[in-house]
Amino acid sequence: MHASITSAYLNRYRSAAARSPVELLPLTGAQRRFLITRRLAPLRRSDVVPLFFAYPRGTLDQDRLARAATAVAARHPALCGGFAAVRGTPVLRVGGPSAEAARIAVAPGGTAREALREALLDWPADGPALRLLFAHEPDGEEELLALALDHAACDEQSLGVLTAELSQAYETDEPAAAGPDPQALADYRQAVELQLATEDAAGGPAAQAHWGRRLGGLTGAGGGAAASTGMLTERLPAAEGAARSGVFPALLDAVGVAAHRLHRAHRTYPGEGALALGYPWGGRPAGAPAALGCFLNTLVHPAGPTATSDPDALADAWWDDLDHAGTPFDEVVRAARTAGASWSGALDAMLTLEDLHRRPPLVLGGTPGRETHLAGRPLAAPLAVSASHGDDLLIRLAWDSDRFPEADAHAAFDDLLAVLRQHLRARPLLHTHA
């Protein structure tokens, strides 16, 4: 029986922590992946989670924003100190708040969107973990704010905590603490240790066998990061009641069809075999404190070239995968390759779904920000689909514009929407080019 990747990490962490003059905290599997990937490819950009909000011009005060960002960061160990490698072992080094707020200059003839996009591309490799960046055109009526975080410090559950706390901190404008209090540190450590225990237990023979069966036929099309991207958007009616539970498996099927359409158009992919469709999933382990951080895992769905005709079978297979959702990604790759997959571990497409009802608005100066989205941001895969489920279902498809022509992206998006409407029985709407 092979040694668990998680248990091997814990042994290295304990050795590094015992010799360190400063307190070191362990990292979850997802956090380690972000940091290891970053350090193996120094020229690769950091994985960043941004939200964008528009406010009437004159709403935002930079000094007040900076104090609010620092005050919120000081409460959460994941937003304090810094991620580091000690004796080759990824850790979180405990320290003070890691946050900033800055006004970004707009180049002559440029736009606030372009300025913020460029600022996020220049994200410092070693922090800060939380940044509030804002910009406006000289004659613009609005200013655009980016609430952006190092992905190693943040997951979807954390976003709602941050918008609520930033709204409150901006309103009260109280001075920040020097760093997290002892209880916050203890809660964070407990949450991470419970997550690691879950990941260790989820890497056993039963999970290896499951993922080997599910992913042994993966070939992949040669995924990888994308620097230059385009975006298409569509709004569909929100699913209500029990129908909401069917949204994600329907998206898996629809995105898989779109991914095959795009990759078949790429001359290096013959169009055969299953593609690797990755999606983040997870939450805090049972009994864990509600610590802010990154407690997700990347699951892999074997995407076939055609839509699944039986939605119940599709949902059942997905639920079976969720029974093994704690298996660390590296263990999943090992299981697939052991089962005969020729897959390298690179993702051919990514899917994310956010429930907007779980995230309060970002209210600054008494004004709720109007959320917006920016095209052109880098991707971790050649194709990425983001779905936001609130008063409606917003679908955004972004693609590697250096690899795939725009016409192929439009055709793939049409396929995605057709399959999604088929599964959800939504009325048709026109999509727009962002």
Protein described:
With 434 residues, the protein is an alpha+beta fold. Helices cover 36% and strands 24% of the residues. It has 11 helices and 17 strands. A 7-stranded mixed β-sheet has the order 10-9-11-15-16-8-17. The chain has a 5-stranded mixed β-sheet with strand order 5-6-7-2-14. A 3-stranded antiparallel β-sheet has the order 1-4-3. A hairpin with a 2-residue loop joins strand 12 and strand 13 (367-368). Mean pLDDT is 90; it is low at 426-434.
Keywords:
434 residues, alpha+beta, seven-stranded mixed β-sheet, five-stranded mixed β-sheet, 11 helices, 24% strand, globular, disordered C terminus
Helix content: 25-40%
Structural category is alpha+beta
- N to C succession of SSEs: HEHEHEEEHEEHHHEHEEHHEEEEEEHE
Beta percentage is: 15-25%
Which strands sit side by side, in order, in the main sheet?
10-9-11-15-16-8-17
Radius of gyration: 22 Å
Described by strand count, sense and barrel closure, the largest sheet is:
7 strands, mixed
Using the alpha-carbon principal axes, give the shape.
globular
Query: Taking all residues together, what is the mean pLDDT?
Result: 90
User: Which ranges are low-confidence, i.e. pLDDT below 50, for 5 or more consecutive residues?
Assistant: 426-434
- Number of helical segments with 4 or more residues: 11
- Gap between N and C termini, in Å? 50 Å
By DSSP, the count of extended strands is 17
